[in-house]
Every structure is written in C-alpha cells, then in structure tokens.
Specification:
With about 120 residues, this protein is mainly α. It is built from five helices and no strands.
C-alpha cells in the first residue's frame, strides 16, 4: 500500500513528463505504429504511474524524496518510453489491476449536492 503518496502533485508532474516526451518526439515511433496519439499518451501516463508506485513502494518513498523518483521517471520516459509501455502491457495481461473498493464505502460530497451548505448561506 502506498503511504503518504502525494497523488495530485505526482499526477501533475507525470502529465508534464508525458507531454514533454511527446513534444520532444520521443513517442513518434509508437504513435505512428499505433496510428494514434491520445491512446499512446494515456498508456504512457498509466505506465509512468505504475513505475512510480512500484518505486515508491519498494524504496519506502516519502514526500522528501519525491523529486528523486520524478527525476528517475523522467529519465525512463525520455530514454525508454517503449519499455515503460511494455511493462504496463505485461502488468495488465497478468490481470493485476488494482482492487477497487465497493462503491458503498465511497461517499463524495459535492457543492452541488442537496443539503450541503455553502459558506455564507443562511
């Protein structure tokens, strides 16, 4: 289980890394092979998150060393994007999808939900 994982910050950084790889034409071969761009970007994003979560868990990551993990991930994405994509394919082919909690346990409240008082409402 990932503890103290800064999901939002990592998500923004992985998005930056994936877009940068596209801009630097490091994904051109894969995009041409598949004849699509968005699918490749989505898969690379998922592959990068998978790699990051494995590193975080194996090395007992903390927020203090998150920068190290991002640098390693950026290097992997630049040098070996196809290898990252293959690791995602292997992970999915083994059926190792993360378990999803039962929906009855998840309760989100939105400001649009009835009964939620907004600041200043009386």
């Amino acid at each position: 289980m990932l503890r103290n994982f800064p999901f939002c910050i990592m998500s923004v950084n992985i998005t930056r890394i994936v877009i940068q790889a596209l801009q630097e034409e490091r994904l051109s071969r894969e995009c041409n092979r598949r004849q699509q761009v968005i699918g490749v970007l989505n898969d690379l994003y998922a592959a990068a998150f998978l790699r990051l979560s494995r590193l975080w868990e194996q090395q007992h990551g903390t927020v203090a060393n998150a920068g190290f993990f991002l640098k390693e991930l950026e290097l992997s994405t630049k040098k070996k994007p196809r290898q990252l994509l293959k690791s995602l394919e292997a992970y999915l082919s083994r059926g190792l999808r993360p378990p999803s909690p039962p929906s009855s346990q998840i309760q989100f409240t939105s400001i649009c939900d009835p009964g939620v008082e907004l600041e200043g409402d009386s």
